[in-house]
Amino acid sequence: MVTPTTEKSVCEDRKTRIMNKFIQWSLDWIPDSMVFVLLLTLIVFLLSLGFTEHGVWQLVDDYAKGFWTLLTFSMQMSIMMVTGFVIADAPPVKKLIIKLINLPKSVPATIVMFALVCGVVSWIHWGMGLMLTIIMGKEIAIRKKGRGIHYAYIVAIAYTSMNIMANGISQAAPLLSATPGNFLENIMGIIPISQTSLSPFMMTLLLFFLVSLPLIYLGIKPKAENAVEISEENYKEFTHVTPKEIVENRRIRPAERLEKSRILTFLAAILILVWVANFIIVDGIGNINLNVINFAFFGFGLLLHDSPNSFINSVKDGASTIYGVVIQFPMYAGIFGIISYSGLAIVITNWFLSIATPGTYPWIIFIYTGIMDFFVPSAGSKFVIEAPYLIPAAQQLGVPVQMVINAYGSGAQWANLIQPFWALAYLAAFKIKFQDILPFTFLLWLFVGIVCSAYFLIFPFGW
């Protein structure tokens, strides 16, 4: 006799098998990002051979012309990633995280606080959000042990709140579009972030997510009796304190005093932040661009570290995150060169024009980006490749360019919820498997997909 309990168990087993197959397929078939860019180069090269008049040597020449066009953008993105790490790694920030975690007395209040803090910080700076969500998630797992909070659930909140809310002022496409002299300026001009990240259209969407996400997290929280908390092994490892290095009784060199002095970093930070404040007062917050954002975060990084030594040591640790940008962005620029100079951009633009209407184009961009981002999980580098044909198609359809940027960013963050690539840092830090968090991230993926699809279909031109 089949009981309701048996049916439920069979259904859960089927869901688990499907998810495990999906995860295994992702891990088996989605290669390293370096392999991605090489495969993309080959695909674009072959498409250009088949659909344009350029021959092999001309395409190599197109690749060479484009290869160096992203040097400025590469450095800008590198600085952004490192400064985010440096701020989140600062001792005052870590102390503040512990104080915040100790404030809520109940588990639901802890979850709401966690989601809100992670969301707001990730909106300001996705790199800082990535670091902070990991640090904060670990501390919650440790300090709330025994309160019945499922470990994988904590990791899922950290990962999804960062990804959904990272569609903010630090996202590459809006900031690049707002920066004078960017390599796409001749295609679309300058699009200030007051029309993209800071527009009423996007602020309303993200405010909705900021309010609704904590409620959803509470709704999908595993019951305390079913919770699997942090393992004893992880608990011991995360709470292990490294003995402080014994300082020898020796003469301190004058240069060493400067290296450990707070005065130099403090003065530099104040000068930078005063300049940023003056820029915002004179030009307005809607006109900030990638350079201004990076300058501000550089200043905050200096301010939060108590010496040049502390700052540069944090930079050294954060520099390990940018090797992909340094090597791969020029290669993406080469792909951009082939697409732009060979005429392939015109071919792809015409294809989009054949399937889209002004009312459906932003939604098509959202879905298209969500699919493509699963295979090329880097919104900044992918925008370099896709902008030469997405923007002209929008212009010919009469769709505001800023709506393409808004839909593009939303689609990229949506895809990341079920894409293992950006989860790797979380999986390594929390020592957990992707299949453990996927049941939670998949539900959020469905929710975000439905909300964004409805939003872009109802308001294709913004408001």
From TrEMBL:
Source organism, top-level taxon: Bacteria
GO CC terms: plasma membrane
Ranges that cross the membrane: 29-51, 63-87, 107-136, 148-166, 201-220, 263-282, 325-353, 359-376, 437-458
The entry's keywords: Membrane, Transmembrane, Transmembrane helix
Name used for this protein in its record: Short-chain fatty acids transporter
